Amino acid sequence: MGTRITDLNFDVLKYIMLFVAQSGAENLARAVSVCRMFMELAMDKDALKAAVFDNVRLSGRYELFQQINGLISRSAHAGNMTAQYMLAKIILVSSSQLLEMESKAAYSNSSSKNHFSADQADESKVPNDDTLAVSKDGTLASSFMAEFTMNQSYNRKLSSRSLYHFELVKLFWRQCSPHDLSEMRLHFNRYFMYYVGSGGERDLIFFDFIKNMCILDDYLKAFEELEKLRNRLKDEVRVTGELEKENKEMNEELFGQNEGSNNAFVRNCQTLGGILVGLRNERREVDAEFEAVVHAQFDEFKNFSKKIAAVFEEHRVRVVPIFDNIFR
Questions:
Q1: How many whole angstroms separate alpha carbon 177 and alpha carbon 313?
Q2: 265 with 222: CB under 8 angstroms?
Q3: Are residues 226 and 136 in the same domain?
Q4: Do 193 and 110 fall within a single domain?
Q5: Dist CA 132 CA 208 (whole Å)
Q6: 3-state DSSP call for residue 12?
Q7: Is the residue at 247 inside a domain?
Q8: Roughly how many angstroms between the first and final C-alpha of the chain, as a whole number?
Q9: Cα–Cα distance between 292 and 300 in angstroms, integer?
């Protein structure tokens, strides 16, 4: 009779499960459904901490991960830093849903008091689809977020719980890329408004930092798009004297401007991109002179983007004490 994998020594199985976790969180999730032993092995702290989430996409699917005992949450509590970062994103979206639910409920109550009539009584009892959707999302978010609130009676199965929502959000702030911050900007603002409120000087400073950092991200996105376009076209194009002059004029226009003019920077990136596209369509041979012009201008863009990235990091560092002061 053949030996089954479950007949192997427990330590050997645990070692195998570590490899499964390192191969991807999806594989670890599949292992849970195989048998009870695999479930225990997959939920082991070492396996959860080793789980790799590189291929797990959150955007547009956050409600699927609002699970108290889900793989991301368990891995985060086991010390998996990637899972903690992802959990912070889920918390930001959840708090955004809670604020939206609270706002709609307040509006509904106010509306009912001001406009309710006997003729509307029956109709008012039937919620529309939008109300149902917000209510459902809000209920799920409320249950999920309760696990990260200090005064909550925690699930004893997660006996080592020490992660609170503000700790995870601060971790996100310390580690987020400019693009991630832009993606989560609305939810970050709503998170702050839900737990702290708004209107004070400290609040305005916090919101201004987020706004300015997202503007910096616009610079960096423009540079990245330009870099992709240049790399795609640099071996295909050839310059004429007229286009060389146009590039020179645009270069003088761009770098004579205030570096704080975000729209101008993005617009000029797009202009240069348009010139390169036009050249691609007109010329198929590489011209060393044109390459020198584009390369020189590209170096200016590159140096500028490095300065922008440095300013972003300065902003990040300056916000941490503000965050600590708010949630201490």
A1: 10
A2: yes
A3: no
A4: yes
A5: 34
A6: helix
A7: yes
A8: 62
A9: 13
Are 115 and 167 contained in the same domain? Answer: yes
Number of Cβ within a 10 Å radius of residue 292: 12
Same domain, yes or no, for 183 and 221? no
User: Considering just the CA atoms, what is the radius of gyration of the chain in Å?
Assistant: 27
Give the per-residue pLDDT at 85: 94
**Domain termination residue (choose one: 180, 197, 214):** 197
Domain range holding 215? Answer: 203-327
Find the Cα–Cα–Cα–Cα dihedral 273, 277, 279, 285, rounded to 10°. 110
Residue 163 lies inside a defined structural domain of this protein: yes
Asked if residue 223 belongs to a domain, the reply is yes
Q: Could you give the number of structural domains in the chain?
A: 2
Q: Is there a domain that residue 241 lies in?
A: yes
Cα gap 221→205, rounded to integer Å: 24
Q: For 276-321, how does the pLDDT look when each residue is reduced to its tens digit (9 = 90+)? A: 555 555 554 545 555 555 565 677 777 778 888 888 998 889 888 8
28: closest CA among 42, 40, 16, 15? Answer: 42
Q: What is the mean pLDDT of residues 176-205?
A: 83
| Span of 64-73, 128-137, 242-251 with lowest mean pLDDT | 128-137
| pLDDT band at residue 200 using 50, 70 and 90 as cut-offs | low
Whether 167 and 238 share a structural domain: no
Q: What is the 3-state secondary structure (H, E, C) of 249-269?
A: HHHHHHHCCCCCCHHHHHHHH
Q: How confident is the model at residue 118 (pLDDT cuts 50, 70, 90)?
A: very low
Split at pLDDT 50, 70, 90, the class of 133 is very low
Higher pLDDT, 166 or 105: 166
Q: How far apart are CA 54 and CA 268, in angstroms?
A: 35
Per-residue pLDDT tens over the stretch 59-82: 777 777 887 778 888 888 889 999
Q: Which two tokens stand for residue 202?
A: 């400290």
- Give the dihedral of Cα atoms 13, 18, 24, 28; nearest 10 deg: 40
Query: What is the helix (H) or strand (E) element at residue 85, kind and residue range?
Result: helix 81-115
pTM reported for the whole predicted model? 0.68
